[in-house]
Amino acid sequence: MSSNLIGNNIVRLNSVDSTNNYAAKMINQTNIPFGTVIMSHFQTSGKGQRASNWISPKATNLLFSVILDTSFINPLDIFQLSKAISLSLKMAVSELVSKKVSIKWPNDILVDGCKIAGILIENQWAYNKLKSSIVGVGLNVNQTDFNSSFSATSLKMLSNKNYLLDDVLNLIIKYLNIYFEYLRNCDNRIINEEYFKYLFKYNEWSNYKTNGSFPFLGRITSVSREGLIEIQKKDGSLTSYDLKEISYVL
Length: 250
Fold this sequence. Notes:
The chain contains five helices and twelve strands. By secondary structure, it is of the alpha+beta class. The chain folds into two domains: about 190 residues, BirA Bifunctional Protein, domain 2, CATH 3.30.930.10; about 45 residues. The longest helix is centred in the last third of the chain and has 20 residues. About 35% of the residues are buried.
C-alpha cells in the first residue's frame, strides 16, 4: 500500500456488516492506499469497544473507518494514536456545537457529559512490529431517539438542525490529517497537553466503581504510556486500570 493523505480515497457503501471488517478485507485482498476512508450508511454488525455493539439507524449517523500506515509508531507508544484520533473528533465536534466537548478515557467523545461519538482502533502486526491500523468511528449526527442505558446525544439534538454527513466527514478528515501529522512528526507534547486538557474528569474528585467493589472517591492523575488510567484515592494510593475494569458513578 502507498501512503496518502487521509481522505484522498473515500469508499462509500450503502450497507456493510462493519466498516472495520470491510477495511480489513481490503487490506488483505487489494492494494488499497493508506488514508482510505470506508463510509457506510448502515452497519449490520457495528462494533464498539471490547466486543460491544454499535447500533445506528440507516443514513442517520456518520459511520466510517480509516486505514492508516502506523508502522512508524513505536509499539510502546501505540496509545498516542488513540489520543490523536480522539482529539481530531473532539476538535471537529467543537466546531459544530457551542457546548463543552470532552474526551472520556480512553477515547469516547462527550458533549456536556453525554456520549456523541465512539472510536474503535484495530491494529495489524507483523513480527511484533506495528504494520497498520484501522480506525473505526461512529458519530451521532441526525439521530434524536436513543434507546440505551447511557446518556447519548447528537449534533441535531444539540443544534436543532440536520447535517449533511459528507460535510461532517470532511471536517473530521481535516482534523485527522492535522493530528496524524503531529503523530508522524513525533510531536507528543502537543498531543499529550491537549488530551489531558480535554480529558473528562481529569484531576477532579469523582465517584468510581471497579468490578465487584463499592463506589469510592478518586481522581484521574494520568494515563500511562500503555493507555491505563491512573486513579488516586483519598488515602493517596495510586492504582492503574484497564478498559472496563473501572467505571464512573454518576
